[in-house]
Amino acid sequence: MRPLPRLALCAAGALAVGVGCATDADEPSGAVAPDAGPAAEPPGQRPDASTDSCPPGALCEPYLCDSAPPPECPAPTDPSTLGTLCGWIGDAGHGGGFTWDKPAPCDNDSGGACDIPLAFFDAVEYAADPEAAIPLPVGLLSRDTCGYFVAHDVPAPPSGFVGIRVHRETWLETWTSVILNPGDVRDNLPAWFLSHRLDRAWTETAGAPFGEQTFAARGAVLYRFLADGVPRSGVAFTDSEPAFFFSDRDAQARSHVEPSLTATGANGAALRTDTTDGIEAKNAPPGCEWRFALARPVPGRLAVVDVVAYAIGEPGEPCRAR
User: Fold this and answer.
1) Is the model's pLDDT at 15 over the cut of 90?
2) Into how many domains does the chain fold?
3) What DSSP string runs through 134-191?
4) Alpha-carbon span 292 to 179, nearest angstrom
5) Structural domain includes residue 182
6) 89 three-class SS
7) Using CA atoms, how far apart are residues 152 and 141, in angstroms rounded to an integer?
8) Where residue 179 sits, what CATH number does that domain have?
């Protein structure tokens, strides 16, 4: 099951997920002293996912979905050409997803997580030209108010990579690349969203390395290094291209970029904006190696990729962290 953060609804009735419960005008820059790391977030203080803010002075109350099991992830009807992708929509800054007080299937009146558009693409085509890429025809896409989704009978593209896009007008366009071969049933996959305020916070704490451009405006990839499902600290890239790492103490948080760091911190995450092919990383657990999915920075968008440790010589065997 996905990791779930503290969740909130603003008193006005809007779903709240994010970094603070205030308007953009009232929000601090997000910068945190490098030696302190971001402070723990008070419960119930998150911006409205539909507007990227909460009404000033709104009182937030927690509502949880963590007791709701994820939906079943069924096998495709034609395993020679199709696959199934199941997962949840999550906040790129917090590692968790939506919550709702009464988990239920999406219908015309569900709102909240149900209103977030999801689309699936050949990831190679999408990375080359997002505007021209044509969505894959999914047999059946089901959703619920907790943000879980089941994409049943997804055509496995020739590239072997599917891009899952999350986009709405008040957020930045974000996409996640996952491996999908015919017959695959991929479960517990995160599809991330990114708010404008978080993109600005990353850029500010990184020291504005691109002038007036933010990470997303330039086009960036957020790598999450995972060993046995756990974020891996101390991971560094083997090339000399610029990379940016986080100083957050919470393994699920990604809010503060510290320019002096040269390897992943507690959250196992890193940002890059270059288009270097064949990226490699070191410091996997003993006997394991990192396996990268397709990732390309696309201007105006954030790509999020899980880099998973696998046992050396056993391509299908995930690494057991030790």
Assistant:
1) no
2) 1
3) PPP--SEEEEBTTSEEEEEEEE--TTSEEEEEE--TTEEEEEEEEE--TT-EEEEEEE
4) 10
5) yes
6) strand
7) 6
8) 2.60.40
Instruction: Say what the pLDDT of residue 149 is.
Output: 94
Q: How far apart (Å, rounded) are the C-alpha atoms in residues 61 and 10? A: 7
Predicted confidence band at 205 (pLDDT cuts at 50, 70, 90)? very high
Whole-structure pTM over 0.85, yes or no?
no
Establish if 209 belongs to a structural domain: no
Q: Which residue has the tokens 């990226």?
A: 279
Phi, psi of 204 (to 5 degrees): -65, -45
What is the reported pLDDT for 222?
95
E-assigned strand segments in the chain: 8-10, 15-16, 60-61, 82-91, 118-122, 140-143, 148-155, 161-166, 171-179, 185-195, 220-227, 230-231, 236-237, 244-246, 257-258, 269-272, 281-282, 288-291, 301-311
- Helix spans in 17-162 (H): 123-128
How buried is residue 314: exposed, middle or buried, by Cβ count under 10 Å (0-12/13-18/19+)?
A: exposed
120 occurs within a structural domain: yes
Question: What pairing do the DSSP bridges indicate for beta strands 171-179 and 301-311?
Answer: parallel
Residue 125 lies in a domain: yes
> What is the domain range of residue 121?
82-193
Q: What are phi and psi of 34, to 5 degrees?
A: -55, -35
- Among residues 11, 20, 14, which one has the least CA distance to residue 46? 20
